[in-house]
Every structure is written in structure tokens, then in C-alpha cells.
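Lecture 7 notes: from sequence to structure.

We start with a single chain of 582 residues. Read the sequence below before looking at the structure.
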Amino acid sequence: MRADGGPEVLRRSKRGWMWNQFFLLEEYTGNDDQYIGKLHSDKDREDGTVKYVLSGEGAGSIFVINENSGDLHATRRLDREEKASYTLSAKAVDKASGRDLEGPSTFTIKIHDINDNEPKFTQDPYIASVQEMADVGTLVVQVTATDADDAMYGNSAKVVYSILQGQPYFSIEPETGIIRTALPNMKRENREHYQVVIQAKDMMGQLGGLTGTTTVNITLVDVNNSPPRFTQGVYHFTVPESAEVGSEVGLVKATDADVGKNAEMSYRITDEQDTFQISTNPTTQDGVLILKKALDYEKKMSYTLSIQVENVYLDPRFHMSGDSAVVKITVEDVDEPPVFKHPAYVMEVKEDAQIGTAIGAVSAADPDAKRKPVRYMVDWHTDMDHVFNIHPNNGSLFLSRSLDREEKAWHNVSVQAAEHNGLIGHVPVYIKVLDVNDNAPTFDMTYETFVCEDTKVGQTIQTVSASDADQPLRGHRFYFHLASESFEKSNFSVRDNKDNTAAILTQRSSYSRTERSLFQVPVVITDGDFPAQSSTNTLTIRVCACDSDGNVRKCEAEAFALNAGLSTGALIAILLCIVILL
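Now the structure, written as C-alpha cells:
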């Protein structure tokens, strides 16, 4: 078989036909089918007995063959970028018998590229940034465009780049698409955003080449090249002398053309450091002047401060100094209440002091320049019982009611000092009531004491102790003895243990509850303070029947009833004991 339609022809000795490669231009726009070439077999005597059969990619749809003549056509317009080549097979067949005259022969149809695709950028737009004040030639970004045409055939896919918009600020390398800065000292403060339009043109940029464009949005990134500046050279503020420590005196403002952390500022006072301090508001970057120490108009009526502002973060490439300003502060006079000489007073008075006794004195004065006289008074809200009074002119505090330390050991009162116009100062006065030995010691509890009928002489049946409402400086010391007039000396005795306790001892070897079931023993307790105080305390002792171990078995119920000092709980317990024993 012979193929006509291409420059390259191969001959085969074993077969009677020839085949080759066919070439077809893409994007054919004619009205008729596009002619590709002709297939012919040496077996074909052109008498109409041979037909040609086509198979393979696109056979019958994209490519058709005239079965009689072997003419090959493309039925539609082809796009190389979709498919660059097609592989097909052809054979010659005897029409009458259907027998293959030639076995299948494979050939290729290659689509020839034309420049029908414009370059396309991989992004649109590009977003890029570069530091302001960057050196000329600093790399900003690289753009890339691709062309779908055949890079191996001609210059259809060979792209060059150029700037349509963005000069003289930026330049682009035609072959690489690298964008660089082209102008020195570009400042963000003058212009922050640039829109650069880049063109990519194929055919090496020659006339007739196709083009594509993209936009590159370039932002100048701030560097710290602008120092802060005060908006005023002198600031004036007025503050009352009564202003609280920590309160705001005023705001000073500085501006910085930079942004972000490059615009963060720090303020400081360069001279007077004791009375005021300055800090930075993190949101507004204003300097906040704060009162550090209490003011006193009578001592100082005005202040002049030198302040300085600097950037927090400095760029070593730019040697910048901050800015300075003067702050003048005027202190306003405020009519202040009287001030006491001491912030608090502590006084002492004995609890047996007579009414009218002077306890102590307070002193206050008007701190203002006029030095108005003051009058003193006790704040009755802190002394509802009117225990104390004060001399209105000299501040002497004296007693107006009797005291009892055991009832109240401390009195906390507030004394007022008032000016003529009504301004009032206050001071706390803490009055300690000193103890006087005016309370006698007593038993510290109610004792329920028993003695067995069968006992021994000198046996301890109870240990008693005492308590005293007084508080002697050296502590309590109590002495115990049996009352001298007691009729029970022959029955019981008292032994002082020298440790503020005493033992009650038996004086007999036996007691009979049938003869006498109840004893009242008077115990005298004396304290060791001056003047000594004493009291007689009666100890009730019941006679009970006991077992050999000394445990109570039976007591007379009448004995319990006679003890008026017994608690209800004790009586119930004893009655239960009796019921159990019975």
C-alpha cells in the first residue's frame, strides 16, 4: 500500500503497500472536510474490486476514508492542546470475498500546532509586599505565565514579560518574571499601595504574538523610620490638692507616621520623679500623667516637668531621637478638713476611775493657710452609752460614766474636729480599760460530790478549782481553806494543792446515810491580787452506799432534792442510777 500526502515515505518489501506519518493543521476553519492524504495498495488495480478499511483512534468519527479511492479526511476542527496525535490502522480488502489483501498497517496523524493560545498567569491578582526604603533592585515577587501551545514547535509558547502599569516604581525581568524595586527611598507614609499590571506575550514578544495580563498588588511594609513627635511643645494641667494618689492628671499626645509596633511609644519624666509618673495607654498610645504622691497646696502650688517620648522598638538602620515637651501643673487650693496630729490614739484608764477623770487628749489643726480654729466632739454613733466626753476647745477626753472591764475591756470611739464652716476631720481613739481586782474567785463549776458510807480517813473525794473575772498582770493565784465557822471540820477538810486547786478530804472512817445523807461544806477561796478578794463557796456532799470498789450502789433520793445546786441533767442521771440498782 502506498500513502500519499506526506514528505516521509517508507517502503516495505514484504507488503505491497506503503505508509507514513500524516500532518494536519489544528483549528481548520474551511467548510469542507480537511484533506489529510491518500492510502493506496499495490494490490489495487483500480478496477473497483478493492476497498479500504480504517480503524483506530477517531476512525469513522473524526477521520474517514473513501473506501474506493483511499482518500483520508478529517471531519471536524481539531485542537492540538486537547490531543496532539492519533494512531490509526488501515487495510485493503477484496470486496467480493472479504479477504484481506493487505494486513493492517499502522500510521500516525500528528496535529501541527498554531499559535492559538495566549499566555495565562498562574495567579490573578498576585499579592506581594516589600519593605519601604528598600534598595533599588530588591526582589518583590516572581510572576509566572504558561502557554498551552507546543513549546517544541516554533515560538508559540515562548513568553516574555513587560510592565504595562507600575513604572517607574518597579521593573520586571523579561525572561524570568521577577519584579524588583526600581525607585529608591519609597516611603510608606507617602504611598502605601501600588497596583502593577504585568503583560506576558508569546512569540518571544514579536509582532503578532498573543498576550495575557495579571495584576500585582504590592504593599510597602512599614519600617521604623519616623520618630514620634509631641502635638504641643507645652502642656498645661490643673489638679486639686485633694486628688487621690493614682488619679489621672492629664494626657499628653504624640504622633508617629509609622504603624503597628513601629508606632508604639514610651514616655518618661526626665526631671521631677517623686510626685508624678507617666505611662503609655496601650490602645491610644497617649501619655497618661498619674499622681504618684499626695499634693499639698500650702507646701507647693505648681510643678514644671520635662517629658520625653521615644519609640519602644528602634530600627538600627535609622538613627532617630525622640521628642521632648514641657508640662506645667497648677495645684488648686482645696479647703481641707482639720488634720489630727496622729492617725490614731491609744489611751488607758482604770476600771474604777471616777466620773470626770481625764483620760488623755487629742490635737488637730486646720491645714489650710487660714488656720481656722477647730472644735472637738465625740461621734455619738461610736459611743451610744455616752461613756466619754471631750472638751470642745482643748481636746481633753474624760470619763462621763463608770466602767467595768469585765463587761467591756476596750472602747473604740471616733473623735471629730470641726471647722467653723462645717468641714470635719475624724480620728479613731482606742481606750483600754485597765483591770482592778474587784471580783472574788469562785468555783469554776458546780460539783456533784459523793462520799461512800465505808471510807477511810484522809481520802480525797473531790478536787475543786476556781476562776476569777479579773486579769491580774502576773496571772491568777488562788488560796483555799475551810471556813473557820464551819461545823463540818470534824467531817471534812480542805487541802490547798498550791496549783490553784484544792482537795476535799474525809475526816472520818465511816458515814451513815440513815443518820445524815447530806453535808454542806463551806470553802473559802482568796485571790492573790491587791486588794485581795475572797468568797465562800458551798460544796454539797451526798452520802451513798457503795460496793467494795467504791462504786455508788444507792443514794437517798431526798438527798438529791435537797441539793439546789444540782442541774436537771444530774438529777435525772442519779435517779436512773437508783432505778438500775433497785
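Residues 281 and 287 are 6 Å apart (CA to CA). Keep this in mind for problem set 3.
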